[in-house]
Amino acid sequence: MLKIDWWEMIKILFDVFLNPKIWAPIVIFIIVMSIFKFGLKKLEKKIDDWKYKKKYSHLGSNNCPKCDGYLVERSGKFGTFLGCSNYPKCRYTKQVK
Which of 2, 41, 66, 71 is 20 to 30 A away from residue 50, measured at CA? Predict the structure, then answer.
């Protein structure tokens, strides 16, 4: 029968978890990745905003006056129109001339 010294096992676990050489790189990696992911999301949003403004700049204001969402070009049975990107929460529309 194998005899286990539980106190020695607990001591080893505490030595591992309290040793910053082991857990510090993992924590730093997690922090860096979360900052990088947050930065990428902001960058993607900026790029999307830029593409949207470039595509719809000839139509005037790009923001919904009701909810500050984006106005996107949509087509319906009466032709094309600008509708809020937050549809169905916001039902603002504007005719395209």
Answer: 66
